[in-house]
Amino acid sequence: xxxxxxxxxxxxxxxxxxxAAAAAFGKFGFAACxxxxxxxxxxxxxCHVAAYCTMAVINAAMTALFVRSxxxxxxxxxxxxxxxANMAATGLLGHLLFAExxxxxxxxxxxxxxxxxxxxxxxxxxxPEPAAAAAAAETKSxxxxxxxxxxxxxxxxx
Length: 158
Description:
TMEM42; 2 domains
């Protein structure tokens, strides 16, 4: 069961990374495709279309991975894992691809947010989802009713 949670956590993290990559392609499609170099090489319209189509495909893959992880992890845990990966990757991709500055405040903020998200994940780890808990309670209630009926059936038959 632990490996299922680990693989689901990896799906969440990859979904967050893909979300950051999709955002980078969206920004590229909006800003970089209008530059003289890219416009002359591909044509501005073709560059916009290629960037936005790539962004859509990456978003579809991100959604598929996130939904897969939601089936196996509590929704809060899946959401915070994906969000943490997305925030960190967005900042790093912005720095690497668009020369955006990463300040000490940004790094401290990411560290604090990640620590908070880790605490949230640890607090929900091992706790069943409300739907799973309700299903388990319903199963237990049905088993008790069956047992009760069996006991009353035996006393009436005797």
